[in-house]
Amino acid sequence: MQAAGRPVHAVGKVGEMFAGAGIDGVHPGATNARAIESTSRLIDELDSGLAFINLIETDQVYGHRKDTQGFHRALREIDVAVADWCRRLEPTRDMLVLTADHGCDPTTPGTDHTREHVPLLARFAGHEGRRHDGALSDVGASALEWLTGETDPELPGSSFVR
After folding, report:
1. Where does the pLDDT of residue 18 fall: very low under 50, low under 70, confident under 90, or very high at 90 and above?
2. Does the keyword Isomerase apply (predicted)?
3. Potential cystine with 94: which of 10, 69, 89, 101 (Cβ 3.0-4.6 Å)?
């Protein structure tokens, strides 16, 4: 993204996950509420670029700790935030992608990651009602194409923009 002149913003632990590489701005997100607040502010402030958000409590606090009530509350808070973000985003300009890198079902035995399919929800112009059953790497390829109009055959994944 940076090579294409698009700023990359990290919310929560994303900056740490990538050791700061490829990140232009780091924003608070030690809790889901802070990450949601930072994301809402970025939606209002950014003209272009990528905001990469991690809602850490959903995984670390509720999923691994088997706190089904907390997990339920977190999902409800995320639902409210996503509805708000969808109202704020410009559908012909902005893309919203929600996904996860692993499962963490608080109702299963043990505290490890779980093996269910992770969600991949995308909202952008021209994508209404389509289904995508590809790989997680397709998110990066799609974001690159959406933000730059280009694809990169060196990157894994296939864009679902078209």
Report:
1. very high
2. yes
3. 89
- The DSSP element (H or E) to which 121 belongs, if any, is strand 120-123
**Which CATH superfamily, name and number, covers 2-148?**
Alkaline Phosphatase, subunit A (3.40.720.10)
* 5 touches 149 (CB < 8 A): no
For 6, other C-beta atoms within 10 Å of its C-beta total 15
The whole-number average pLDDT for the span 97-125 is 85
| Amino acid code (one letter) for 118 | V
CB atoms inside a 10 Å sphere around CB 38: 20
pTM of the predicted model, to two decimals?
Answer: 0.89
**Number of residues that this document lists for the chain:** 162
Nearest-angstrom CA–CA distance, 40 and 33:
11
Block residue for tokens 């079902």: 105
Please give the Cα distance from 66 to 68 (Å, whole number): 6
Q: 53, 124, 54: which is closest to 86 by C-alpha?
A: 124
Residue 148: burial class (beta carbons within 10 Å; 0-12, 13-18, 19+): middle
